[in-house]
Amino acid sequence: MSVSIDKSEMLALPLNEMKNKIRSGDISVLGSKSFKDFEEYLVSNEDWAHERSETKLTADLSVEEYLRAKEEKLNTLLKWYSKNYESLEKIIGEDEKIHLKRLEKNTPEEAKRLSSALYKMIPKISLPN
Questions:
Q1: Rg of the Cα trace of the chain?
Q2: Rounded to an integer, what distance in angstroms lies between the CA atom of residue 43 and that of residue 54?
Q3: What distances in angstroms separate CA 60 from CA 23, 55, 68, 75, one per listed residue?
Q4: Helices of type H across 85-108
Q5: CA dist 94 to 56, 77, 101, Å?
Q6: Within a 10 A sphere around the Cβ of 27, how many other Cβ atoms?
Q7: Residue 9 neighbours by CB distance under 10 Å
Q8: 71: number of CA atoms within 13 Å, CB side?
Q9: What predicted TM-score, i.e. pTM, was given to this entire model?
Q10: What is the pLDDT of residues 14-69, one digit of tens each?
Q11: What is the C-alpha to C-alpha distance for residues 66 and 57, in angstroms, rounded to an integer?
């Protein structure tokens, strides 16, 4: 449990004891930026409720709900795949398995030149054996 004390109250403790308690977080110092109460570093419940309602990065709290949603999404994708199987060029179905064709290298020449120029900028360092 963290105890907040005023700067003037710190004088009542022996110096070493006070220093150790502040470093360990047992004592927080009012008005200090480095040794404030741990709870002050956290987002308040009100701010969290507001941020949670505003953000699009929310996830279900229940594992069961999360897994059910992922299962539904996977089933939807598999149904789409089975309907569009014949028109997909990059996917080969053999032995009731899905295989992806090997991708061709298509790095633009400009990117290759940029990469080469960047590597030339790196200084060469010789390391002794």
A1: 30
A2: 15
A3: 38, 13, 11, 19
A4: none
A5: 39, 19, 12
A6: 21
A7: 14
A8: 6
A9: 0.32
A10: 777 777 777 777 777 777 777 777 777 788 888 888 887 777 766 656 888 889 98
A11: 14
